[in-house]
Amino acid sequence: MGARWRGGDAGGAAAATAWWWVAAVVLCHLLSSARAGLLETNPGLAYNFYQKSCPSLDSIVRQVTWAQVASNPALPARLLRLHFHDCFVQTCTALVPFFFVQGCDASILLDNAQSEKTAGPNLSVGGYEVIDAIKTQVEQACPGVVSCADILAMAARDAVSYQFKASLWQVETGRRDGPVSLASNTGTLPSPFAGFNGILQSFANRGLNLTDLVALSGAHTIGVASCSSVTPRLFNGNATQVDPLLSAAYAKTLMSSCPNATAPGTVNLDGGTPFKFDSSYYTNVLNKQGTLASDAALAQNAAAAQMVQDLTNPIKFYAAFSMSMKKMGRVDVLTGTKGEIRKQCRKVGS
Ligand code: HEM
Fold it and tell me: Is 195-327 a CATH 1.10.420.10 domain?
């Protein structure tokens, strides 16, 4: 077979390859649209999935997470982003859809030379040690029962809930851990430079819609961005060239943290209340104070801009965020007998 692919009929082989890719792309689009509907219904998860098998799970996750957040206020943002980046890995390659489903499956936690965490967009992702700390305690209480994927989803919720001392959203559980982690599968992560259609498409690829995009972007009400994610909006080489979608005053604020095109360091995503999970992100976007180009892009589309306006109301924001987090937490999960339950979240088959 291999000899035939390498042999004289190069034209035939090329045609066969082209056909295969066309079929794969069409299939990918079909799977993406089908997924959009699927996320509205439960993929086999449940509230209190571990009620009998690990009754102390909720309190262990909350206790460990809250203790760590108490001494490190950067953690809610880190854990929320970690969960998001776990869910947004790519399924659309020629073979993968049939053999491995990849979504919220804790694959981002795996350590190996080419794992997801080595991909460019994941280099600034953190919070792994919190998941390890929780997992150690959960394994002591209920060995071999609770997946790392569920612990990650719960820790993201509890890290944000520290501010409110109550959960902002509920987490369905019953996910299992996926064995595949490849940096090359992180291509569907949205780029901050992609523009409105680009980020919308990235969400559509994971079965999420415009409402989800606008609601979940509100996560940028906490946390930081590296200067490299922002400086293309401020400089063109050595010259100052400010993105017209940025207010002059806010551009100045950003430049005080990132003074030139290659500055190291970080800026707060929400210049006003960077540690508060509130709806000020949306006011920022309307006031040309969205930090990333992708934040500013939400005000460039009429339907999105109307939603941004609505979500400046904190009650509406919390409700919308909660609904969309539940949908995001369902993206291509492994349930039943698929995947595995890892004892160590960083190691397959452990
Ligand atoms: C709309 C598409 C999105 C884009 C383009 C995007 C892009 C980014 C970028 C570039 C950063 C800064 C990374 C760095 O420079 O080091 C960031 C940070 C962050 N993102 Fe997003 N993101 C998006 C959606 C989301 C979603 C859906 C969530 C969660 C539900 C999220 C949560 C966060 C958080 C919390 C941070 C701060 C992390 C920290 O402080 O450690 N983002 N995002």
Answer: yes
